[in-house]
From TrEMBL:
InterPro entries per UniProt: AAA+_ATPase, ABC_carbohydrate_import_ATPase, ABC_transporter-like_ATP-bd, ABC_transporter-like_CS, P-loop_NTPase
Alphabetical keyword list: ATP-binding, Nucleotide-binding
Species name: Chlorobium luteolum (strain DSM 273 / BCRC 81028 / 2530) (Pelodictyon luteolum)
Protein name, per record: Nucleoside ABC transporter ATP-binding protein
UniProt KW ATP-binding keyword: yes
Length: 502
Protein backbone atom coordinates (compact mmCIF):
# COMPACT_ATOMS: atom_id res chain seq x y z
CA UNK A 1 0.00 0.00 0.00
CA UNK A 2 1.55 3.29 -1.13
CA UNK A 3 0.66 6.92 -0.51
CA UNK A 4 2.50 8.98 -3.10
CA UNK A 5 6.16 8.17 -2.62
CA UNK A 6 5.61 6.55 0.79
CA UNK A 7 5.24 2.77 1.10
CA UNK A 8 3.06 2.25 4.19
CA UNK A 9 2.68 -1.53 3.88
CA UNK A 10 5.56 -3.35 2.20
CA UNK A 11 5.10 -6.99 1.08
CA UNK A 12 3.32 -8.11 4.25
CA UNK A 13 2.43 -11.77 4.68
CA UNK A 14 0.47 -12.63 7.81
CA UNK A 15 -1.77 -15.46 9.01
CA UNK A 16 -4.29 -14.93 11.82
CA UNK A 17 -5.98 -17.96 13.33
CA UNK A 18 -9.74 -18.11 13.80
CA UNK A 19 -10.77 -17.62 17.42
CA UNK A 20 -7.39 -16.14 18.41
CA UNK A 21 -6.34 -12.78 19.83
CA UNK A 22 -3.54 -11.61 17.55
CA UNK A 23 -1.66 -8.41 18.47
CA UNK A 24 0.17 -6.28 15.90
CA UNK A 25 2.73 -3.92 17.45
CA UNK A 26 5.31 -1.46 16.17
CA UNK A 27 6.46 2.15 16.24
CA UNK A 28 4.29 5.06 15.15
CA UNK A 29 4.16 5.04 11.37
CA UNK A 30 5.16 1.36 11.09
CA UNK A 31 2.06 0.65 8.96
CA UNK A 32 -0.16 -1.09 11.53
CA UNK A 33 -3.27 1.07 11.06
CA UNK A 34 -2.91 1.06 7.26
CA UNK A 35 -2.73 -2.74 7.24
CA UNK A 36 -5.90 -2.91 9.33
CA UNK A 37 -7.68 -0.42 7.02
CA UNK A 38 -6.91 -2.73 4.10
CA UNK A 39 -8.55 -5.64 5.95
CA UNK A 40 -11.54 -3.43 6.84
CA UNK A 41 -12.10 -2.27 3.24
CA UNK A 42 -11.05 1.35 3.80
CA UNK A 43 -7.95 1.08 1.57
CA UNK A 44 -7.30 -0.93 -1.58
CA UNK A 45 -3.74 -2.30 -1.75
CA UNK A 46 -1.53 -1.88 -4.82
CA UNK A 47 -0.80 -5.62 -4.80
CA UNK A 48 -1.31 -8.77 -2.76
CA UNK A 49 -4.32 -10.86 -1.80
CA UNK A 50 -6.53 -11.01 1.29
CA UNK A 51 -8.04 -14.40 2.20
CA UNK A 52 -10.87 -14.93 4.67
CA UNK A 53 -11.35 -18.56 5.70
CA UNK A 54 -9.38 -19.63 2.65
CA UNK A 55 -11.35 -17.59 0.11
CA UNK A 56 -9.96 -14.50 -1.69
CA UNK A 57 -11.69 -11.29 -0.62
CA UNK A 58 -11.68 -7.98 -2.49
CA UNK A 59 -13.47 -5.11 -0.72
CA UNK A 60 -14.48 -2.03 -2.69
CA UNK A 61 -15.92 -0.39 0.44
CA UNK A 62 -16.18 -0.83 4.21
CA UNK A 63 -19.79 -1.94 3.76
CA UNK A 64 -18.60 -5.04 1.90
CA UNK A 65 -16.11 -5.78 4.68
CA UNK A 66 -18.87 -5.39 7.29
CA UNK A 67 -21.05 -7.87 5.36
CA UNK A 68 -18.11 -10.30 5.44
CA UNK A 69 -18.15 -10.07 9.25
CA UNK A 70 -15.30 -7.58 9.74
CA UNK A 71 -15.67 -4.71 12.21
CA UNK A 72 -13.06 -2.09 13.13
CA UNK A 73 -12.66 0.26 16.06
CA UNK A 74 -10.56 3.13 14.71
CA UNK A 75 -7.87 5.03 16.57
CA UNK A 76 -9.45 8.25 15.32
CA UNK A 77 -13.13 7.98 16.13
CA UNK A 78 -15.78 7.74 13.41
CA UNK A 79 -18.63 9.55 15.16
CA UNK A 80 -21.01 12.30 13.99
CA UNK A 81 -20.76 15.00 16.71
CA UNK A 82 -24.27 16.38 16.10
CA UNK A 83 -25.97 13.00 16.67
CA UNK A 84 -26.67 11.22 19.95
CA UNK A 85 -24.91 8.10 21.16
CA UNK A 86 -27.84 5.87 20.12
CA UNK A 87 -28.10 7.58 16.70
CA UNK A 88 -24.38 7.09 16.02
CA UNK A 89 -24.58 3.43 16.97
CA UNK A 90 -27.59 2.78 14.75
CA UNK A 91 -26.01 4.36 11.63
CA UNK A 92 -25.71 1.50 9.15
CA UNK A 93 -27.41 -0.75 11.68
CA UNK A 94 -30.90 0.76 11.74
CA UNK A 95 -32.85 -2.43 12.53
CA UNK A 96 -35.54 -1.41 10.00
CA UNK A 97 -36.33 -1.63 6.29
CA UNK A 98 -36.08 1.24 3.83
CA UNK A 99 -38.75 3.92 4.48
CA UNK A 100 -39.86 2.13 7.66
CA UNK A 101 -39.70 3.92 11.02
CA UNK A 102 -36.46 3.46 12.93
CA UNK A 103 -37.14 1.72 16.30
CA UNK A 104 -35.30 4.30 18.40
CA UNK A 105 -36.54 3.01 21.73
CA UNK A 106 -35.38 -0.51 20.86
CA UNK A 107 -31.96 0.80 19.91
CA UNK A 108 -31.70 2.81 23.15
CA UNK A 109 -32.52 -0.34 25.11
CA UNK A 110 -29.91 -2.33 23.14
CA UNK A 111 -27.29 0.32 23.86
CA UNK A 112 -28.11 0.41 27.58
CA UNK A 113 -28.09 -3.37 27.83
CA UNK A 114 -24.78 -3.73 26.02
CA UNK A 115 -23.22 -0.89 28.05
CA UNK A 116 -24.23 -2.55 31.32
CA UNK A 117 -23.12 -5.99 30.18
CA UNK A 118 -19.61 -4.79 29.27
CA UNK A 119 -19.17 -2.11 31.95
CA UNK A 120 -19.06 0.78 29.44
CA UNK A 121 -21.13 3.51 31.09
CA UNK A 122 -22.58 5.99 28.58
CA UNK A 123 -25.86 7.90 28.15
CA UNK A 124 -27.64 6.78 24.91
CA UNK A 125 -29.28 10.22 24.58
CA UNK A 126 -26.10 12.28 25.05
CA UNK A 127 -24.88 14.25 22.04
CA UNK A 128 -21.53 12.83 20.91
CA UNK A 129 -20.07 16.31 20.40
CA UNK A 130 -20.47 16.88 24.17
CA UNK A 131 -18.68 13.69 25.24
CA UNK A 132 -15.14 13.40 26.56
CA UNK A 133 -12.61 11.41 24.55
CA UNK A 134 -12.99 8.47 26.93
CA UNK A 135 -16.75 8.45 26.52
CA UNK A 136 -16.37 8.60 22.72
CA UNK A 137 -14.10 5.55 22.96
CA UNK A 138 -16.84 3.67 24.81
CA UNK A 139 -19.34 4.52 22.07
CA UNK A 140 -16.98 3.13 19.42
CA UNK A 141 -16.57 -0.07 21.44
CA UNK A 142 -20.33 -0.42 21.77
CA UNK A 143 -20.77 0.03 18.01
CA UNK A 144 -18.43 -2.87 17.40
CA UNK A 145 -19.95 -5.13 20.05
CA UNK A 146 -23.52 -4.52 18.86
CA UNK A 147 -22.63 -5.33 15.24
CA UNK A 148 -21.67 -8.88 16.24
CA UNK A 149 -18.59 -8.98 13.98
CA UNK A 150 -16.78 -12.31 13.64
CA UNK A 151 -13.45 -10.55 12.95
CA UNK A 152 -12.90 -7.60 15.31
CA UNK A 153 -10.09 -5.12 14.64
CA UNK A 154 -9.29 -2.92 17.65
CA UNK A 155 -6.89 -0.03 16.95
CA UNK A 156 -5.68 1.32 20.34
CA UNK A 157 -8.91 0.30 22.16
CA UNK A 158 -7.59 1.02 25.66
CA UNK A 159 -5.98 4.39 24.95
CA UNK A 160 -8.47 6.20 27.22
CA UNK A 161 -9.58 3.41 29.56
CA UNK A 162 -8.59 2.97 33.20
CA UNK A 163 -6.94 -0.29 34.31
CA UNK A 164 -10.30 -1.46 35.69
CA UNK A 165 -12.09 -0.74 32.39
CA UNK A 166 -9.22 -2.33 30.47
CA UNK A 167 -9.46 -5.45 32.63
CA UNK A 168 -13.20 -5.73 31.94
CA UNK A 169 -12.61 -5.23 28.21
CA UNK A 170 -9.96 -7.94 28.12
CA UNK A 171 -12.25 -10.32 29.99
CA UNK A 172 -14.82 -9.62 27.27
CA UNK A 173 -12.27 -10.21 24.49
CA UNK A 174 -11.20 -13.53 26.01
CA UNK A 175 -14.84 -14.62 26.24
CA UNK A 176 -15.48 -13.60 22.62
CA UNK A 177 -12.33 -15.42 21.50
CA UNK A 178 -13.46 -18.57 23.32
CA UNK A 179 -16.70 -18.41 21.31
CA UNK A 180 -14.79 -18.32 18.00
CA UNK A 181 -14.44 -14.57 17.39
CA UNK A 182 -11.16 -13.51 15.82
CA UNK A 183 -9.65 -10.40 17.43
CA UNK A 184 -6.83 -8.32 15.95
CA UNK A 185 -5.40 -5.91 18.51
CA UNK A 186 -3.18 -2.89 17.88
CA UNK A 187 -1.73 -1.29 21.01
CA UNK A 188 1.42 0.42 22.25
CA UNK A 189 0.92 -0.93 25.77
CA UNK A 190 3.31 -3.83 26.01
CA UNK A 191 1.93 -5.23 29.27
CA UNK A 192 -1.49 -5.49 27.62
CA UNK A 193 -0.07 -7.30 24.60
CA UNK A 194 1.68 -9.87 26.76
CA UNK A 195 -1.32 -10.37 29.06
CA UNK A 196 -4.15 -10.82 26.54
CA UNK A 197 -2.71 -11.85 23.15
CA UNK A 198 -2.18 -15.43 21.99
CA UNK A 199 0.14 -14.42 19.16
CA UNK A 200 1.89 -11.18 18.26
CA UNK A 201 3.47 -9.74 15.14
CA UNK A 202 5.98 -6.87 15.07
CA UNK A 203 6.03 -4.31 12.24
CA UNK A 204 8.88 -2.02 11.26
CA UNK A 205 8.74 0.42 8.34
CA UNK A 206 5.79 -1.36 6.73
CA UNK A 207 7.17 -4.88 7.06
CA UNK A 208 6.48 -7.78 9.41
CA UNK A 209 9.81 -8.48 11.14
CA UNK A 210 8.62 -11.25 13.44
CA UNK A 211 5.60 -13.32 14.55
CA UNK A 212 5.69 -15.36 17.76
CA UNK A 213 3.61 -16.71 20.66
CA UNK A 214 3.01 -13.90 23.17
CA UNK A 215 4.47 -15.97 26.00
CA UNK A 216 7.83 -16.42 24.27
CA UNK A 217 9.08 -12.82 24.58
CA UNK A 218 9.65 -10.39 27.49
CA UNK A 219 8.47 -6.78 27.70
CA UNK A 220 12.02 -5.51 27.24
CA UNK A 221 12.69 -7.77 24.25
CA UNK A 222 9.42 -6.74 22.61
CA UNK A 223 10.19 -3.03 23.07
CA UNK A 224 13.60 -3.47 21.44
CA UNK A 225 12.09 -5.43 18.52
CA UNK A 226 9.61 -2.58 17.93
CA UNK A 227 12.13 0.28 17.83
CA UNK A 228 15.17 -1.63 16.58
CA UNK A 229 17.43 -0.53 19.47
CA UNK A 230 17.83 -0.87 23.23
CA UNK A 231 15.12 0.90 25.23
CA UNK A 232 15.17 2.05 28.85
CA UNK A 233 11.83 1.38 30.58
CA UNK A 234 12.92 3.02 33.87
CA UNK A 235 12.61 6.76 34.48
CA UNK A 236 14.71 8.76 36.92
CA UNK A 237 12.51 11.22 38.81
CA UNK A 238 14.41 12.52 41.86
CA UNK A 239 12.72 14.35 44.74
CA UNK A 240 12.75 18.16 44.75
CA UNK A 241 11.31 21.15 46.57
CA UNK A 242 8.48 23.03 44.78
CA UNK A 243 8.46 26.82 44.79
CA UNK A 244 5.85 29.59 44.52
CA UNK A 245 2.20 28.90 43.72
CA UNK A 246 1.37 29.15 40.02
CA UNK A 247 -2.16 27.72 39.73
CA UNK A 248 -4.83 27.89 42.43
CA UNK A 249 -8.24 26.28 41.94
CA UNK A 250 -10.71 27.08 44.73
CA UNK A 251 -14.16 25.52 45.11
CA UNK A 252 -14.62 25.29 41.32
CA UNK A 253 -18.09 24.27 40.16
CA UNK A 254 -19.29 23.62 36.62
CA UNK A 255 -22.90 23.04 35.62
CA UNK A 256 -24.10 22.01 32.15
CA UNK A 257 -27.08 23.81 30.51
CA UNK A 258 -29.34 20.84 31.34
CA UNK A 259 -28.42 21.12 35.01
CA UNK A 260 -25.91 18.28 35.46
CA UNK A 261 -23.05 19.31 37.76
CA UNK A 262 -19.67 18.13 36.40
CA UNK A 263 -17.34 19.86 38.89
CA UNK A 264 -18.36 19.95 42.54
CA UNK A 265 -16.18 22.15 44.68
CA UNK A 266 -12.88 21.16 43.03
CA UNK A 267 -9.84 22.60 44.81
CA UNK A 268 -6.08 22.09 44.34
CA UNK A 269 -2.88 24.09 43.84
CA UNK A 270 0.23 23.60 41.70
CA UNK A 271 3.59 25.19 42.47
CA UNK A 272 6.47 26.01 40.17
CA UNK A 273 8.72 23.03 39.68
CA UNK A 274 6.15 20.32 40.40
CA UNK A 275 3.90 17.98 38.43
CA UNK A 276 0.38 17.57 39.78
CA UNK A 277 -1.19 14.44 38.34
CA UNK A 278 -4.94 13.92 38.10
CA UNK A 279 -6.11 10.31 37.99
CA UNK A 280 -9.67 9.40 37.15
CA UNK A 281 -12.07 7.62 34.86
CA UNK A 282 -12.90 9.76 31.79
CA UNK A 283 -16.10 11.76 32.25
CA UNK A 284 -15.55 12.73 35.90
CA UNK A 285 -14.86 16.40 35.16
CA UNK A 286 -11.50 16.35 33.38
CA UNK A 287 -12.87 17.88 30.16
CA UNK A 288 -14.72 20.63 32.05
CA UNK A 289 -11.62 21.51 34.08
CA UNK A 290 -9.64 21.88 30.84
CA UNK A 291 -12.35 24.11 29.38
CA UNK A 292 -12.22 26.44 32.39
CA UNK A 293 -8.42 26.62 32.45
CA UNK A 294 -8.21 27.30 28.72
CA UNK A 295 -11.04 29.84 28.61
CA UNK A 296 -13.28 27.64 26.44
CA UNK A 297 -16.41 27.31 28.60
CA UNK A 298 -19.33 26.48 26.24
CA UNK A 299 -22.29 28.83 26.01
CA UNK A 300 -24.97 28.11 28.58
CA UNK A 301 -22.66 26.41 31.08
CA UNK A 302 -22.48 27.95 34.56
CA UNK A 303 -19.28 28.12 36.60
CA UNK A 304 -18.46 29.38 40.07
CA UNK A 305 -15.45 29.39 42.36
CA UNK A 306 -12.06 30.87 41.63
CA UNK A 307 -9.14 29.97 39.37
CA UNK A 308 -5.93 32.01 39.67
CA UNK A 309 -2.91 31.79 37.36
CA UNK A 310 0.06 33.58 38.95
CA UNK A 311 -2.47 35.44 41.09
CA UNK A 312 -4.58 36.62 38.13
CA UNK A 313 -8.25 35.46 38.04
CA UNK A 314 -9.01 33.63 34.78
CA UNK A 315 -12.77 34.28 34.85
CA UNK A 316 -13.80 36.35 31.83
CA UNK A 317 -10.45 36.13 30.05
CA UNK A 318 -10.21 35.04 26.41
CA UNK A 319 -8.07 32.01 25.47
CA UNK A 320 -5.36 34.24 23.94
CA UNK A 321 -5.25 36.37 27.11
CA UNK A 322 -4.84 33.26 29.26
CA UNK A 323 -2.11 32.00 26.91
CA UNK A 324 -0.41 35.38 27.32
CA UNK A 325 -0.14 34.74 31.05
CA UNK A 326 2.11 31.76 30.29
CA UNK A 327 -0.29 28.84 29.82
CA UNK A 328 0.57 26.13 27.29
CA UNK A 329 -1.71 23.14 26.72
CA UNK A 330 -1.66 19.71 25.07
CA UNK A 331 -5.42 18.97 24.81
CA UNK A 332 -6.92 15.50 25.06
CA UNK A 333 -8.38 15.59 21.52
CA UNK A 334 -5.64 16.74 19.16
CA UNK A 335 -7.67 16.62 15.94
CA UNK A 336 -10.49 18.72 17.39
CA UNK A 337 -8.58 21.16 19.59
CA UNK A 338 -4.88 21.29 18.68
CA UNK A 339 -4.22 21.04 14.94
CA UNK A 340 -5.53 21.82 11.47
CA UNK A 341 -5.24 18.46 9.77
CA UNK A 342 -5.15 19.84 6.23
CA UNK A 343 -2.26 22.22 7.05
CA UNK A 344 1.30 20.97 6.54
CA UNK A 345 3.30 19.78 9.52
CA UNK A 346 5.45 22.93 9.51
CA UNK A 347 2.47 25.24 10.02
CA UNK A 348 1.00 23.01 12.72
CA UNK A 349 4.31 23.28 14.57
CA UNK A 350 3.79 27.05 14.92
CA UNK A 351 0.00 27.03 15.22
CA UNK A 352 -0.93 29.25 18.18
CA UNK A 353 2.66 30.49 18.27
CA UNK A 354 2.34 32.40 15.01
CA UNK A 355 2.12 35.73 16.88
CA UNK A 356 5.67 35.31 18.19
CA UNK A 357 8.06 37.87 16.72
CA UNK A 358 10.62 35.18 15.95
CA UNK A 359 8.38 33.91 13.13
CA UNK A 360 7.72 37.34 11.58
CA UNK A 361 9.51 39.25 8.88
CA UNK A 362 8.01 42.65 8.12
CA UNK A 363 4.23 42.34 7.67
CA UNK A 364 4.41 38.61 6.91
CA UNK A 365 6.07 35.44 8.13
CA UNK A 366 9.73 34.51 8.02
CA UNK A 367 9.95 31.33 5.96
CA UNK A 368 13.53 30.76 7.12
CA UNK A 369 12.52 30.97 10.81
CA UNK A 370 9.61 28.55 10.32
CA UNK A 371 11.83 26.10 8.41
CA UNK A 372 14.52 26.28 11.10
CA UNK A 373 11.99 25.69 13.89
CA UNK A 374 10.43 22.80 11.93
CA UNK A 375 13.77 21.11 11.25
CA UNK A 376 14.78 21.39 14.92
CA UNK A 377 11.53 19.99 16.34
CA UNK A 378 11.21 17.21 13.75
CA UNK A 379 14.70 16.01 14.67
CA UNK A 380 14.42 16.54 18.45
CA UNK A 381 11.05 14.78 18.78
CA UNK A 382 11.66 12.18 16.03
CA UNK A 383 8.57 13.16 14.02
CA UNK A 384 8.42 10.69 11.10
CA UNK A 385 7.64 13.01 8.19
CA UNK A 386 9.56 12.99 4.87
CA UNK A 387 8.39 16.47 3.78
CA UNK A 388 7.13 18.64 6.69
CA UNK A 389 6.90 21.77 4.52
CA UNK A 390 4.18 20.28 2.31
CA UNK A 391 2.93 17.06 3.92
CA UNK A 392 -0.53 17.49 5.56
CA UNK A 393 -0.63 16.58 9.23
CA UNK A 394 -3.51 14.15 8.61
CA UNK A 395 -1.19 11.99 6.49
CA UNK A 396 0.88 11.17 9.59
CA UNK A 397 0.18 8.31 11.98
CA UNK A 398 -1.70 9.19 15.16
CA UNK A 399 1.44 8.94 17.27
CA UNK A 400 3.39 11.29 15.01
CA UNK A 401 0.49 13.76 15.07
CA UNK A 402 0.69 13.70 18.87
CA UNK A 403 4.44 14.31 18.74
CA UNK A 404 3.81 17.45 16.67
CA UNK A 405 1.51 18.84 19.37
CA UNK A 406 3.80 17.88 22.26
CA UNK A 407 6.85 19.36 20.51
CA UNK A 408 5.05 22.65 19.83
CA UNK A 409 3.64 23.10 23.34
CA UNK A 410 6.72 22.05 25.33
CA UNK A 411 8.94 24.51 23.45
CA UNK A 412 6.79 27.63 23.75
CA UNK A 413 8.76 30.51 25.33
CA UNK A 414 7.67 31.97 28.67
CA UNK A 415 5.62 29.00 29.94
CA UNK A 416 4.64 29.14 33.61
CA UNK A 417 1.83 26.51 33.54
CA UNK A 418 1.98 23.50 31.22
CA UNK A 419 -1.23 21.44 30.93
CA UNK A 420 -0.75 17.93 29.57
CA UNK A 421 -3.97 16.01 28.86
CA UNK A 422 -3.11 12.46 27.78
CA UNK A 423 0.30 13.60 26.40
CA UNK A 424 1.40 10.17 25.17
CA UNK A 425 -1.94 8.82 23.94
CA UNK A 426 -1.29 6.61 20.90
CA UNK A 427 2.48 7.14 21.14
CA UNK A 428 4.88 4.19 20.91
CA UNK A 429 7.35 3.10 23.58
CA UNK A 430 10.32 4.68 21.80
CA UNK A 431 8.63 8.09 21.59
CA UNK A 432 7.45 7.88 25.21
CA UNK A 433 11.06 7.24 26.19
CA UNK A 434 11.99 10.62 24.65
CA UNK A 435 8.88 12.64 25.69
CA UNK A 436 8.87 11.77 29.42
CA UNK A 437 12.40 13.12 30.06
CA UNK A 438 11.44 16.37 28.33
CA UNK A 439 8.46 16.73 30.69
CA UNK A 440 10.77 16.23 33.68
CA UNK A 441 13.23 18.70 32.16
CA UNK A 442 10.42 21.29 31.96
CA UNK A 443 9.64 20.66 35.64
CA UNK A 444 13.28 21.16 36.60
CA UNK A 445 13.28 24.42 34.62
CA UNK A 446 10.59 25.72 37.00
CA UNK A 447 7.35 25.07 35.13
CA UNK A 448 4.22 24.11 37.01
CA UNK A 449 2.70 21.11 35.23
CA UNK A 450 -0.83 19.71 35.37
CA UNK A 451 -0.82 16.12 34.09
CA UNK A 452 -4.17 14.49 33.30
CA UNK A 453 -3.75 10.89 32.20
CA UNK A 454 -5.56 7.56 32.26
CA UNK A 455 -2.14 5.87 32.20
CA UNK A 456 -1.48 5.14 35.86
CA UNK A 457 2.08 4.08 35.07
CA UNK A 458 2.67 7.49 33.49
CA UNK A 459 1.07 9.33 36.41
CA UNK A 460 3.08 7.52 39.06
CA UNK A 461 6.34 7.84 37.12
CA UNK A 462 6.06 11.60 36.53
CA UNK A 463 3.89 13.15 39.24
CA UNK A 464 5.00 14.98 42.35
CA UNK A 465 1.51 14.72 43.84
CA UNK A 466 -1.56 12.86 42.59
CA UNK A 467 -5.20 13.87 43.02
CA UNK A 468 -7.88 11.20 42.50
CA UNK A 469 -10.81 12.81 40.65
CA UNK A 470 -14.24 11.27 41.15
CA UNK A 471 -17.53 12.91 40.16
CA UNK A 472 -16.03 16.37 39.88
CA UNK A 473 -14.03 16.55 43.09
CA UNK A 474 -10.72 15.31 44.50
CA UNK A 475 -11.65 12.26 46.55
CA UNK A 476 -8.10 11.63 47.78
CA UNK A 477 -4.72 13.29 47.28
CA UNK A 478 -1.37 11.51 47.54
CA UNK A 479 1.12 14.06 48.91
CA UNK A 480 4.68 14.59 47.76
CA UNK A 481 6.37 12.28 50.26
CA UNK A 482 3.69 9.60 49.90
CA UNK A 483 3.89 9.65 46.09
CA UNK A 484 7.69 9.43 46.13
CA UNK A 485 7.59 6.55 48.63
CA UNK A 486 4.89 4.57 46.80
CA UNK A 487 6.35 5.06 43.32
CA UNK A 488 8.51 1.97 43.75
CA UNK A 489 5.46 -0.20 44.55
CA UNK A 490 4.32 -0.16 40.92
CA UNK A 491 1.12 -2.15 40.41
CA UNK A 492 0.25 -1.98 44.13
CA UNK A 493 0.19 1.81 43.92
CA UNK A 494 -1.90 1.62 40.73
CA UNK A 495 -4.49 -0.51 42.53
CA UNK A 496 -4.61 1.93 45.44
CA UNK A 497 -5.26 4.82 43.05
CA UNK A 498 -7.89 2.72 41.29
CA UNK A 499 -9.84 2.33 44.51
CA UNK A 500 -10.19 6.11 44.75
CA UNK A 501 -11.29 6.78 41.16
CA UNK A 502 -13.98 4.11 40.69
Amino acid sequence: MRFGGITAVDNVSLEIGEGSIHAVVGENGAGKSTLMKIIAGLCRPASGTLFIKGRPAVFASPRQAIKAGIGMLHQHFMLVPELTVAENIMLGHEQSRLLSPVPKQKIRSMVRGCAEAYGLEVDPDARCGDLSVGEEQRVELLKLLLRDASIMILDEPTAVLTPQETGRLFDTLRALSAKGRTIILITHKLDEVLSVADTLSVMQKGRIVGTMPAGSVSRQELAEMMVGRSVSLQLENPAHEPRERVLEVRDLRFRLPKGAEKLRGLSFTIRAGEIYGIAGVEGNGQAELLQVLGGHVPHGCVTSGEVLLKGVPLSGLRPDEISGLGLSQVPENRLRDAVVGEFPVSLNLILGRHREKAFHRGPGFSKAAIEACTARLVKEYDIRCPDPEFQPLLSLSGGNQQKVVVARELTRPGISLLILAQPTRGVDIGAIESIHPKILEARRAGMAILLISTELEELTALSTRIGCLYRGTIRHEFGMEETARKRTEGILFHREIGLHIT
